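Changelog note: in this version the structure field was regenerated for every chain. One regenerated record is shown below for reference.
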Amino acid sequence: MIDKDIIDRDNIPKHIAIIMDGNGRWAKARGLPRTAGHRQGIKRIKEIVKSANKLGIKYLTIFAFSTENWDRPKEEVDMLMRYLDNFLRNELEDLNKNNIRLLVIGRDKPLPDYLLKRIRSAEEYTKNNTGMTLVVALNYGARQEIIDAIKKYIILINDNKEDLNNLNEEKFSRFLYTCDIPDPDLLIRTSGEMRVSNFLLWQISYTEFYFTKKYWPDFTEKDLLEAISDYQKRERRFGRI
């Protein structure tokens, strides 16, 4: 058991990103429908958001739905959209009460209109909060994000507002969905899979990775503390000696 007091409060990751994987397998292992795994996964989000906020983490990014997830059965996709809508509706007041700002990144289309309306309303409602920022990657794909950034820059070049010769890493980052967010210090992936699955490819160049075999519905505050404890034992050199 990792006690909160063991965590070095002066070395808390500023930004943690999480690939929440394993809802379906969690349900299957218990003889339950996949919907049960997603319901439990939503509950786990609530716990981890509260824990991260208490720890003083400034940015928490969760991978809620990828652009590849549209290939799942329509019934499951429709259900996930409703679950996300319910999460935003039910948790909005708690987010605001705890000074948490909500930011959703990803492409709008083909998200349903009712969910987009809920997202915009929630973002507006919490935009002045100064505590933790909860970033929800929804209909998100890192390659698509990079392509969208390139398109934005090309438009400015064509309008004579930018010069291709002036493009560098810092400037390019301003055109990403995460333009106002620092790169993750720590990336956590649950379920035992050891890949990043088209998530924040540009932003995780120097991120520390932490993989756990636990399925997302079993990932608790204790597991979050263990991941942070592991992170704090590492030496981050960013390519230097």
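Spot check on this record: The chain has one domain: 10-141+183-232. The first helix runs from residue 23 to 29.
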